[in-house]
Design goal:
alpha+beta; four-stranded antiparallel sheet
Length: 215
């Protein structure tokens, strides 16, 4: 399903995961968080805390603190490597990304009832040819997406549990954010809130690498 933002490459898949698929993925995420607990990222320079809590899985994980935005192979609090990306999410990437190489990072963002995420671009990766693929679990949110400049017009859409979004092509660097969470719209998470899982390719592939199993 396409969504008119004025940029090609933005694709929506409402209900991509059915209830059983959502429950299975949530169980996998709970396992990841037992090993790589949620932490509170901080803004570069100011150190101001984000409204969301975060973790990662995969060879690399995205972190933010006073030193800046970056990818690193270990959890900032435990110092341990990130857990591997679950098979279900690798399947999601294979089905939706339309890109030959696997993801290297999966950000796990937890939004409480009052959390939001300001308009931003995902531009800390070396390979913008690879899309960003995200899956929503739990309460619905109001997702806003614009164009390539922050001050350009935006459009909003409500995302529910099991919905998937792809930002690729011309939309790969589109500004986007989450304006609000709708508490009580899903029973998937007993504690309430929303989990967003964002799959990304971070580095460029070596010219002579081979096959879809490349890391």
């Amino acid at each position: 399903m396409s969504f008119s933002s004025g940029l090609g490459g933005l694709r929506l898949s409402p209900g991509y995961l059915d209830r059983d698929g959502q429950a299975g993925l949530l169980a996998a995420v709970r396992g990841i968080l037992a090993d790589a607990p949620l932490f509170v990222p901080r803004m570069p320079k100011s150190g101001r805390a984000f409204a969301v809590r975060m973790s990662n899985c995969g060879p690399l994980g995205w972190v933010s603190d006073e030193s800046g935005y970056r990818y690193q192979p270990m959890h900032p609090d435990t110092g341990r490597p990130w857990p591997p990306i679950p098979a279900a999410l690798l399947t999601t990437w294979h089905e939706l990304a339309r890109y030959p190489d696997p993801p290297q990072a999966c950000l796990i963002n937890f939004y409480g009832p009052g959390a939001k995420m300001g308009l931003h671009q995902d531009r800390d990766e070396a390979d913008f040819d690879a899309p960003v693929v995200s899956v929503s679990l739990g309460d619905s949110c109001l997702f806003r997406v614009g164009r390539l400049k922050r001050n350009e017009p935006t459009r909003s859409i409500r995302l529910g549990s099991g919905d998937a979004v792809v930002l690729g092509g011309a939309a790969r660097l589109a500004f986007h954010g989450v304006d609000r969470i709708y508490p009580g719209t899903s029973r998937l998470l007993p504690e309430g809130g929303r989990i967003n899982l964002t799959l990304r390719r971070v580095t460029r592939s070596a010219p002579n690498s081979s096959g879809p199993g490349r890391q």
